[in-house]
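Notes from hallway chat w/ T.B., transcribed later so I don't forget. T.B. wanted the structure written out for a chain they're using in a teaching module, and asked if we could keep both sequence and structure tokens in one place. Agreed to drop them here.
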Amino acid sequence: MPTYRAIICWPRIVVSILVIASFAEPAAAQQVRWLTDYNLARKEAAERGRPMLLDFGTDGCMWCKKQDLSTLRDGMVASLLNDKFVALRVDADREPALTQTLRITQFPTIVLAAPDGKILGVLEGYQEASSLAERLQKVAVAYAPPEWMVRDYQEAAKAIVESDYTRAIALLKGITKDGKDRPQQVKARQVLHDLEQQATSRLTRAKILHDRGHSAEAADALAELLKTFAGTQAAADGATFLSSIAARPELTEQQRSRRARELLALAKDDYRTQQYHGCLERCEILTSGYADLAEGAEAKQLAAEIKDNPELLTRACDSLNHRVGTLYLTLAETWMKKGRPQEAQRCLERVVQSAGGTVAAQLAELKLSQLRGETTYQTDYKKAP
């Protein structure tokens, strides 16, 4: 079968005869479950960890019709699309914004994209079923997680809901063990990071209790940390710290001084890397809990440098806005699951108002448009130059 680029120079009547003659639908044809709403397709791809196929065509394109009635209804192609992809049909005449965003100028054109929107390939012109099926199979294999991985991720999510963090951590570590970047593995790493942060916060509180002379309360907090977040680095550090409390209680003041030095070093590192909100948080701990030490005085001066500089303080506020916006996005999802879209809408509107310009605000705007039944094209798709 000649390619699109080869046939465009043939006399128009020859092209018409060939196209009409080939419009008969093959016996083994199957129907692809096409989506036509861009936002819904992107949402499904992200949630299910599936790559996308975007089929761009027009009503007046004869080779688009031929590809639809032959290649895209081939049994192997249709099966791959239904089972492994999210398939989106785009009428370029009715969706000019998306077409222009991807710089589509020839029809038909097929765009293959990863679940996160990264372009994997652009196929211009008519595609044979065999070659398209081979291309789809390669993409599907690259993004299809093993069944055990999907099962373990679901079990980990269930364990987190039940506050069984130790089991969740063990499952998530197993998912990420090979170091690859399948969708479930990317999600698993993020959840592990969040759990590690929770464990680190508990460790920090235990250390502050100890530094203030409340060794018994600190020991209780550390024991709870070891029980609840076993498998995290913070739990391992907490075990070492708990041993030191039990073995040498006379070192309390030395440990307090060392802790102040560690916190100040972290605050300075936050300042150097422009993480000003984190720097202010650490300085607050130092000035409130270590005011009698030199580190407390230095932290007070460091915090003043940020608070007296509008640009630095703006960055600190932006960071806080992003964190708050992310929390409200999560709250909106929770309200949606409970069947209360009005509450979810209020949360999303608050994100847009308070976290404007952030990724969280962009996501909130997209979700708001979906709730209101609007169509937007806030896309991170980028066609390779």
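Follow-up for T.B.: Strands lie at 52-57, 86-91, 109-113, 119-124. Might be a good example for the class.
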